[in-house]
Specification:
Helix content is 39%, strand content 20%. By secondary structure, it is of the alpha+beta class. It is found in: Endoplasmic reticulum membrane; Microsome membrane.
């Protein structure tokens, strides 16, 4: 039997704050607490995925090999096999749901913000 620690989503619920932040990526549990202030995308991104499966969000961004290597230092253990099918996410109202993660409003607003910034730049600086 493996000596790798197995975690449940119930255990991850206790680690969803700035003081202790764990998340799941590819069925592996990571303690990203120390990385909050250094995360290039901001701490909000990590806090949004805290205590749940952040695989989709992690892959959607297209992290570099260097970022993937950094995860090795934060590795705590694996998600328990019985938990793998749960893939719990939290909706905006705070209730747990199964399925894909709730979409962040920032994801929808970012293209609009970029477009507005480009327009302002063209109007005033070009």
């Amino acid at each position: 039997m493996s000596d790798v620690k197995q975690f449940t989503y119930a255990e991850l619920e206790d680690h969803k704050t700035r003081k202790s932040l764990w998340l799941v990526i590819h069925k592996k549990v990571y303690d990203v607490t120390a990385f909050l202030d250094e995360h290039p995308g901001g701490d909000e991104v990590l806090l949004e995925e805290a205590g749940r499966d952040g695989t989709e969000a992690f892959e959607d961004v297209g992290h570099s090999d260097e970022a993937r290597d950094m995860l090795l230092k934060m590795y705590l253990g694996n998600l328990a096999p019985s938990e793998a099918s749960k893939n719990t996410t939290t909706a905006a109202n705070g209730t747990a749901q199964s399925g894909t993660p709730a979409a962040s409003p920032v994801r929808f607003l970012m293209p609009l913000i970029v477009l507005i910034a480009w327009y302002v730049y063209r109007q005033y600086f070009a």
